[in-house]
C-alpha cells in the first residue's frame, strides 16, 4: 500500500471574491485579498458591478457602462498585479446593484472582501453602504478591509 501523499498546491480550491469599484480602498482590498488567496490556496475573483445611471440628461451615445466596468476591473488588477496576472485570478463585471451582486457572488465563495469606503457618494449614504449590506446578508464570511494609508487625509494626526 502506497502511503505517500502528494503536496501539490497548484489546484486552487474555493474562492475569495473582492468587490472592485476603482477606488483606492478597493485596490487595497484586492491587494490584501491576493495575499489571503495565496496563503489559503484559493482562487481570487475581482468583481466590478455596474448599472445604468439614473440621469436627468441623456447619456452620450458612446457611453458603455459594461465596457467602463471592464476597464475599471482591468486597471485595478494591473495596478495590483502588473500586466501578468497570477494563476487562479480573474477580473470580471456584472450588471446590477453592487451589494446584491456581491451577496449573490457570496453564495459559492469562501469569503467576500470589500473596501471600507468606495465610490458610493450621496446615494450610498441614502441607501446604506455596500460594505454594510454585504456584511449583513452575505452567505459566507465578509472582510471589510480598512487601508490605513488610503484613508489618511493630509494633515491627519497619527492615531493608534
Overview of this protein structure:
Strand 1 (15-19), helix 1 and strand 2 (43-50) form a beta-alpha-beta unit. Helix content is 38%, strand content 18%. The chain has a five-stranded parallel β-sheet, with helices on both faces. The protein is globular, with a radius of gyration of 18 Å. With 160 residues, the chain is an alpha/beta fold.
Descriptive tags:
single chain; 160 residues; alpha/beta; five-stranded parallel beta sheet; 6 helices; globular; disordered N terminus
> What proportion strand?
15-25%
Reported for the largest beta sheet, the result is: 5 strands, parallel
In which range does the helix fraction lie?
Answer: 25-40%
Side by side, the strands of the main sheet go 3-2-1-4-5
Query: What are the segments in which pLDDT stays under 50 over at least 5 consecutive residues?
Result: 2-9, 122-127
Q: Please work out how many helical segments DSSP would assign.
A: 6
The counted number of beta strands is 5
The general outline is: globular
Summed over residues and divided by their number, the pLDDT gives a mean of 82
Structural class estimated from helices and strands: alpha/beta
Gyration radius over CA: 18 Å
First-last Cα distance: 57 Å
Written as H for each helix and E for each strand, in order along the chain, the element string is: EHEHEHEHHEH
